[in-house]
Amino acid sequence: MDKTFKLKSGEALLLTDESERRYFIDFDSSFGYVLITAESRAFYTDKRYLSAAREKLVGWDVEEFKGLDAVAERIRRAGAKSVLIDYSVTTVAEYNKLKKMKFRFKDASRRLESLFAVKSKTEIERITKACSIAEKAFYATLSYIEEGMTEKTLANILEDNMHRYGADKVSFETIVAFGANSAVPHHKTGNTKLAKDMPILIDFGCVYEGYCSDCTRTIFFGEPDDAFVDAYAAVLEANKKAEEEIRTGTGFCEADKIARDVLAKYGMDKAFTHSLGHGIGVNIHEYPYISPKGGDSKLKSGMVFSVEPGVYFDKKFGIRIEDTVVLKGGVKRLFKDEKNLILIN
Fold first, then answer.
1. Closest Cα partner for 138 from 222, 201, 209?
2. How far apart are alpha carbons 309 and 273 in whole angstroms?
3. Quick one: pLDDT at residue 295?
4. To 5 degrees, how large is the angle CA 127–CA 128–CA 130?
């Protein structure tokens, strides 16, 4: 994957963040610096990665990192006066090191997020594979659900299955919420035990070759009452309506409103307490952010993001239905299931 970052005259780009390095060089490393100047592309790393990086990174100068002086010298040779760094991920400690190079630093975060947002064919293929692995693991996990198991136990089984089906790692710490815990959108998976007539909300995803998937399914252990069934139907309608109507050029606010209006029809819009979605790529949360505060920004073809309406009723239950989708004129789901309510008896 050839990622082209357009430099202006007198600029160089320096990346320290692990996921951003992964995006540009398609190589995993816990340490390194990616430097792009008008005349060269260089990756500085330590001896742990040097041999493998030199073998893989065709067209890149791969150098052993021996300090920032060598990095600074390459920037000077390229005639750069300004060094672009990502202010959104650069720590104070990192900045204090970098400023010793005595360059003028500028924020590249907006330019980087725009570049990351529109995915290449290879990126979409990897995200699609990550979704396939996660979905297969989820349905394999359902047969393990039994009364008395803890949230942590179920999360561990699901994560083990994702690894078994080919995941490199999980995209984030799996959320499993039993009963009233499902009313907390980002519940911390714990030791609550499963009992009859409890909802189960599971938010999960995995990484495949550096790219993430994200999915949430809400199922029911036992027999749900009418209030739960009606709420599930409303959330599913909101999810499907958004996926049917979002198009290239739809505004972030407008996309969020599609789902929110469906829930408002059932008097549930106030129970939808988060935004409709977020970008997904080398990071589990990245641009675009599809929310009521999205401003005039428009969705572009090639963007990959979540569609995840939900409703949360304190001390009762919560329901969220989330897909990872890619925009190609219209929305294409990267999960294959029908999303109908699953009952486990």
1. 201
2. 9
3. 81
4. 60
